[in-house]
Amino acid sequence: MSSDFETYEQDFGTITAEVTNKIGKIPKLSGEEKTQLVLNVDKQLEEVRELLEQMDLEVREIPIQSRGMYNSRLKSYKQEMEKLEKDFKRSRIAYSDEVRNELLGDDAISSEGQLIKLREERAHLLDNTERLERSSRRLEAGYQIAVETEQVGQEILSNLHTDREKIQRARERLRETDANLGKSSRVLTGMLRRIIQNRVLVFVLGAFILLTIILAIYLNVRRH
What residues contact residue 1 under an 8 Å CB cut-off, 6+ apart? Predict the structure, then answer.
């Protein structure tokens, strides 16, 4: 399981290095060339997001005692991803001095203030967008936690229902055992009573036979 996580880590490192390099080139370009590079970086960032999702799934499958280390690494990768996205957004509205002068021509100096103001407004807009995205991610994380909590609750209820059925079956077996013990006790009591009765009868018969023999001997001796 951890080997898959490390494979994703290697892919993450390779792609993010390429993205970082391309983000640095975006402000130096313009026109179609810049558009193509922006699309390419956006596609690679999507691949990085998918890698992070895969790593997140892998971490959930790792035993709890080893999960902490991988969670820390995953957290640092997510922070790195957030920084890349932030840099990427800024790079799309940034221009190098050469490109800016080429776009503005002779009005470069006079339009410098307007360009700075425009960049500030765009940066402010990007900050607001990032806040919304962070809020959205927190809501998604909260929803995921709620779903997982509900699943855990359902599992607990299912386990409790199963345990209740086991306890009920055990009680039924205990009642059956008590009933069988009661029957056995009554049978043994009856057998013991019959044994005592038989012994008393044998004793009485033996006493009667003994008395008869004694009486016969006495009568026989008396005749002689």
Answer: 58, 61, 62
131-143 pLDDT tens trace: 777 777 777 776 7
Flag whether the pTM goes above 0.90: no
Tokens for 156, please give them.
């607990």
Which pLDDT score is estimated for 115? 58
Indicate if the alpha-carbon torsion angle 182, 187, 193, 199 is positive or negative.
Answer: negative
Gap between the Cα atoms of 89 and 84, Å rounded? 9
* Rounded-to-integer distance, Cα 170 and Cα 175, Å: 9
Nearest CA among 90, 101, 79, 76 for reference residue 125? 90
Pairwise CA distance, residues 97 & 37, whole Å: 19
Q: Are 23 and 83 in contact (CB under 8 A)?
A: no
